[in-house]
């Protein structure tokens, strides 16, 4: 029907950053395959059509402290709430900026600049160190920090490492260290549980460190983000610990999530006799197992030089201009 529609729960029908900021890669590739520029125009490229395309709107709108809130009004084009999260509701917007640039064979300079600026704001306002020395990315609610990190935010270690490869000097080293520290913190959220699988969210307040303090956050639903970061860090550093950590996950999945018909999520990672939720999420096959497989493969299997992964780990080819013909 051409009617637009938003979730009622999303701050009174707002558009969600991770949804409207995520189709860049797919639309750019669709334009490549079809020869029809309309898809790319909707997502990012300057368009003559009367469409306020997504990226132009986002780069123009004023951002609190340089951060991107999670909800935007599709009517006014302004932010609805000042809730900022690198995890759920925000996550894939950020990775699609750096990946759009890579997929364009480093020609999409607008995407790279937006990524660099966003990461700088995240470093300045959201990256924190716990009393125990763990680096994490807090959430931001109208200027007040919420010292928790969702499992979904653990993809950021891999993203920051990927971006760091294309920086130089101090910035490259700083970002590689940040990526390694965040990935290590996410690993801690796994090792500090009885099942050696990580909770849905973990906190750094009231004396807790990288553990879920709320009953509602103790579950694990076969999520891939932590092993995704292990794969990127292994490919980019070849430090053996990332393969060791990945193997710990394989063993924990076998022990606690394997059921007769496949694999199931568990309701509480802090008990060695977990109850199953009877669900095998689609991303378990698309992402969790694929990233584990790639972690133990040779680097030329879906090489990072030739492929980018969309947010569900589907590989899309980098548009090497010298191969165009």
Automatic annotation (TrEMBL):
Catalytic class of the enzyme: hydrolase
GO molecular function, one term: mannosyl-oligosaccharide 1,2-alpha-mannosidase activity
GO biological process, alphabetically ordered: carbohydrate metabolic process; N-glycan processing
Membrane as UniProt keyword: yes
Signal peptide: 1-18
Cofactor: Ca(2+)
Classification via SUPFAM superfamilies: Seven-hairpin glycosidases
Protein name as catalogued: alpha-1,2-Mannosidase
Gene: Man1c1
